[in-house]
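ASSEMBLY PREDICTION REQUEST
Request ID: AP-0331
Submitted by: J.K., bench scientist
Number of chains: two
Total residues: 419
Priority: normal
Notes: Please return the full assembly, not individual chains.
Input sequences:
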Amino acid sequence: MIDEKCQNLDDNELVALSIQNSQYFYCLMKRYEDKLKGYVHRLTYLSNEDVEDIVEDSFVNAYLHLNDCDCDLKFSSWMYRIVHNSAINFIKKQKQSLRIEADESDDELVDWLVADTNIEKETVSKHFDEYIKSILDKLRPEYKEVIALKFFEEKDYKEISDILQKPMGTVATLLSRAKIQFKQIYEKENKY
Amino acid sequence: MKKKINISDKTLRLIEQRQIKPIPRWEFIVKNWSIWLGFLTSLLLLMLGVAVSWFGLIDNIITPNLWVVVSIIFLTMSFLLFERTKKSYRFEKWQVGLVIVFVGLLMGGVLFRFGVASRIDRGMESRFSFYRQMVPMRMIVWNNPESGYLSGEIVSIYSASSFVIKDFNGKLWNINGNQPIVRGRVKMVVGEEIKLIGTLVSGDTFDAEEIRPWDGMGQNMMKENRY
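STATUS: Completed
Returned structure:
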């Protein structure tokens, strides 16, 4: 079956074959379905139904634009870009704001939050649900996007740059500003 | 238990049922090339606009306002079109803007140095009658025989290429020329106000290479300056 043939093919080979035969596109969808659902869910905190609608629309959109797939990039970056844009458009239409669903088990995120600050790691872990989460929610949307890709999807700067279509320098700046804003809100809210 | 929806199956079914096909490659090629072509055309027009602006600002022959506006329009268009290219996001916006401005100023300067700007200005003047009204000549330039520019009123005519004019300071000039080019509607009659491009031969003798009518805003300026 095609499923078996797909196993030995990389993403770019599957893209080329998908243009002729939609069955190969099925393999690509299977490869990314869970990752993309997880990403949209953590970025938007929407219902399962909405998340699935966004991913499905993104797959159809990607299939339509296969001939425009930028093969200089990783297919995953291109696919994440489409899903990301669909999710942002959906959120805008619904007049909702981005939310990032994080918890104390996100070690890398916790380490990043406490690095270069005087916030104790234990404090962050202990009070994650209590107030750390709400501080993350108060960050500017562009900061949340970068945090979600960096810590939940474990993308490097180049991939984040390709997904968000921003220069790598801007990605680094956004991440550093996110930290500054997090620290400011944390200090303000812990004054009392 | 709620059955887990498999998005891949659902999407594949949708693609097959609706017979969705990928958009042909040529459509994307045409789109991408159109953006690049638009960008390069805008950049070229920016360079030409800057060249004529330099011509107005440095040689001080024309008022460059219109060309400065033209340059700003094509600078904006170049920036917007570049931002629509596929890989533009890899560069900071300010860097893109700065490079376009730098290239425009530099290449505009080169084109100006090679005389392209004055040719554009003359070409526009001969092709479009309204051009000189929009881009008037600077009055002072046409009273500068050392630089090859002279203007005045015809006071006597010996032949088509030999006549006398009185400049707006009242000085009489003997004009000679070897079949000078006549541009625009110039009536070679006494009382006609004209502009000349040529070479100063001596204190009151000027060799004309080109004769133009004194029209547009310059005409009024000349009359104002006469008194």
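REVIEWER COMMENTS: Residues 22-44 of chain A form the longest helix (23 residues).
SIGN-OFF: pending second reviewer
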